[in-house]
Design goal:
Order of helices and strands of chain B: EHEHHEEE
Number of domains of chain B: 1
Shape of chain A: globular
Radius of gyration of chain B: 12 Å
CATH architecture of chain B: Roll
Number of domains of chain A: 1
CATH superfamily of chain B: Beta-grasp domain
Shape of chain B: globular
Oligomer: heterodimer
Distance between the termini of chain A: 27 Å
Strand content of chain B: 25-35%
Strand order of the largest sheet of chain A: 1-4-6-2
Strand content of chain A: 35-45%
CATH architecture of chain A: Alpha-Beta Complex
Largest interface: A-B, 30 and 17 residues
CATH class of chain B: Alpha Beta
Largest sheet of chain B: 5 strands, mixed
Structural class of chain B: alpha+beta
Largest sheet of chain A: 4 strands, mixed
Number of helices of chain A: 4
Helix content of chain A: 25-40%
Structural class of chain A: alpha+beta
Radius of gyration of chain A: 16 Å
CATH topology of chain B: Ubiquitin-like (UB roll)
Number of strands of chain A: 8
Strand order of the largest sheet of chain B: 2-1-5-3-4
Order of helices and strands of chain A: EHEEHEEEHEEH
Helix content of chain B: 25-40%
Number of strands of chain B: 5
CATH topology of chain A: Aldehyde Oxidoreductase, domain 3
CATH class of chain A: Alpha Beta
Chain lengths: 147, 86
């Protein structure tokens, strides 16, 4: 099972985990990203490149399926305006082996952060807004998987 | 005449004031860096967004590519800041 979704709607992380557990592999790993409400943040806006996002995330998912013995892989990435506390992203992997589940989950989130065409803009209570800058250490983490 | 669609995202889009535009496709040996320099020379928001290519990334026909790649027969060039998803 490999499923990738780019959507504005929220998702049910528990239902996604249950679907991965039902594959019977014995091991499920997951990561859920949540909007932090620090520094007077009122909204996080996620922009993306619609023609590229889904194919690019599919490629990253295919890489993970090729690299680890996975029974299932689920990626959900939200776009549009999100409030503090809202879920942004879900990555779940199922395998017979814990190392495969944990490593592939980390690989997927690291590559989504630095190789999928999403951009975040922060809006604050005082009306200010700023685009989030890419962090060199995120790129470094993703590159770490190629070594 | 072949056209090239330019698409912009995040602060590149905001500075230029357009989501996308169509231009005549440059000669196939033209690199992305060459075209970006030509666009920056339009001045105004183009200069603001595109003068410093170290702050930019590019995708040609929905594939990430380095700035020294030629545009070739591509139909779409996207210009944007480094991505910040996840």
């Amino acid at each position: 099972m490999k499923r990738v979704s780019i959507q504005t709607a929220d998702f049910d992380a528990a239902a996604e985990l249950a679907a991965l557990e039902a594959l019977g592999g014995g091991g499920v790993a997951s990561f859920t990203g949540i909007v932090r409400g620090e520094g007077g943040l009122t909204a996080l806006e996620l922009e993306h490149y619609p023609a590229m996002t889904l194919p690019q995330v599919q490629r990253i998912a295919d890489e993970a399926m090729a690299r680890w013995p996975l029974l299932g892989l689920r990626v959900i990435h939200r776009v549009g305006p999100l409030e503090p506390g809202a879920r942004i992203v879900f990555v779940g992997t199922a395998s017979r082996h814990r190392t495969a589940a944990l490593e592939s989950c980390a690989y997927l989130i690291d590559w989504l952060k630095s190789h999928a065409p999403f951009w975040k803009k922060e809006h604050f209570t005082d009306g200010a807004a700023r685009w989030v800058e890419a962090r060199p250490e995120d790129e470094e983490k993703a590159r770490g998987w190629t070594r | 005449m072949a056209t090239l669609t330019l698409v912009y995202f995040a602060w590149v889009r905001e500075a230029i004031g357009l989501d996308e535009e169509r231009i005549e496709r440059p000669a196939s040996g033209t690199t992305i860096a060459d075209l970006v320099a030509a666009l920056a020379s339009r001045g105004g928001g183009y200069a603001e967004a595109l003068s410093d290519s170290s702050r930019l990334r590019a995708a040609l026909d929905q594939r990430f590519v380095p700035f020294d790649d030629p545009i070739g027969e591509a139909r779409e060039l996207a210009l944007f800041p480094p991505v910040t998803g996840g």
